[in-house]
Amino acid sequence: MIRLSDLQMKEVISVVDGRRLGFIVDLEIDVKTGKIVALILADRDSKGGFFSKAEEIQVLWKQILRIGEDVILVKESIDQRTLMLP
């Protein structure tokens, strides 16, 4: 079993291009099944303004290839920044 606080310490890395996507800030959970649907990351390249927060990246649970000791490896499709939220 792993805690959210443990997941938040791991950096999320894309295996497609080795890009560092960031760290987990939230989870999306299906309330009917109780299963995690997606990880929500703060976009490393987006800076939030004084009155706005940085954009978020949504990594679907099915995109996770491996959860290691220090990193989480994910596979994103090249045309996808859904991995991105609007």
UniProtKB/TrEMBL annotation:
Database matches in Pfam families: PRC
Top-rank lineage group of the source organism: Bacteria
Domain (PRC-barrel) ranges: 1-79
Cited InterPro entries: PRC-brl_dom, PRC_barrel-like_sf, Spore_YlmC/YmxH
Protein name as annotated: YlmC/YmxH family sporulation protein
Species for this entry: Oceanobacillus luteolus
